[in-house]
Structures
1.
Amino acid sequence: MRRGCALLLGLGGLAAGQVACAQSASVSLPGTIQAGDAFSMQSTGNGKAVLYIVGLGQVLRRDVQLGEKTSFPAGSLYNAGHYLVILVQGSSTTGGSLDVVPAHQVTDLSFLARPSRLPVGLHDAISGTVYVFDAYRNLITAPMPVFFTLSNPSSAEQQRTLNTRYGSAWTEMDSTAKEGADKFTARAGGVSSTRMVEQVPGDPCKLTLRARPEGQRLALETDPVRDCSGNAVPDGTIVTFTENYNGAQSTVDVPLKRGIAQVEMAAHSGARISVASGVVLGNEIHCER
């Protein structure tokens, strides 16, 4: 550590902006330490002095005997960042700086998965973002592998392996073909975090309409309605029945119940009756009486 003129800080009675020269004392710094590690500093000179270590969120003060080693136990400096070191003896100061870097061992993950609920069979529809932290909640910026998996009992497991950049990693996954709860897991350095992603049936894929006479009316009913992956479309989904006859039109909206939609409509001779749900059209029936 070089000796000479240094800017005094407003700490422990020091006047901000005052300049002094220290020729009799100096301190040897480690340069870089890992967060939470024990470390020491060797000073030169004679007599007593005060040592300050100043950083964002942390300030350490030690009374030291010049010419001796000053030790700091594990956990003394735990916030990663750049620290200013000041050795004060009377009106003279000297000092320098050191850097505290995050520890290399992962002890915690922050894992964000979006969305929590979505339809089946969508490409790159699920996103996952991971942030890796050490024991002191410092973001570990050194690159490290993160393993992502998305799985459920009825579909093949999806896997991704990515290296973190500036402490984070991000990926996208396809929603699986079968409805149910998928386990979305991120793992780094032996630590894992899991989120559940609920996958629900998609839009109806095919509609089949059947009809039977009921006196002067027609009883209309769909086959069980499913999405394109074969999952049953949930009850409450609206199915629209449309009857066209003699230039007139009649429509009825019916929610699915137990997977099918049922309704009765007037049986007009020559009428054409169709069924639809969303953008999906079913077959058409012609009424002949």
Note: The mean pLDDT is 88.
2.
Amino acid sequence: MTIRLRVSEPRVADDLASFLSGHDCRAEVAEDGTVIVELPHALHRDQARMELELYIRLWQALRGVSVDLLH
């Protein structure tokens, strides 16, 4: 399952991708500046979304940057 994220400050998209990669996610920055994330260990979409939302909240708290899930 793949989820796309939009960071309010595109210059930190690489930092978000690196942070998520450190938490067993596959994450890369696309040419349009969105972050494409896969959670290969998630059993289903709801689990993946909940887990990713927790990681995003932590990253946002550390960086003060907003992130939108695009599906």
Note: The longest helix spans residues 45-63.
3.
Amino acid sequence: MLTSPSGATLLDFGQNLVGRLRIRVAGPRGAVVRLRHAEVLEDGVGVRLLRTAAASDSYTLRGDAACEEWQPLFTFHGFRYAEITGWPGEPRAGDVTAVVYHSDMERTG
């Protein structure tokens, strides 16, 4: 976990991957957690190279559970870094998991 110059929470997954983020979060009803994905950093997540692609997901909390778990269903992203905004309190290391997607191919070489 890092902090951007603007104060946003940044996550570095150590390598580029294709997938999406799964979050476990607790907070008040109506709070919105936003996740932005990028392959590089530029004073925060580097979205300049993405041009018009949003590369972001958001989740509105139900607020009726001690902890809610969520991940988007119909998208995936290529990223190494993710920026989190709107998180109620401070996220902990185990609150966000990168879920990797890949082809299940038999190794041939």
Note: The radius of gyration is 15 Å.
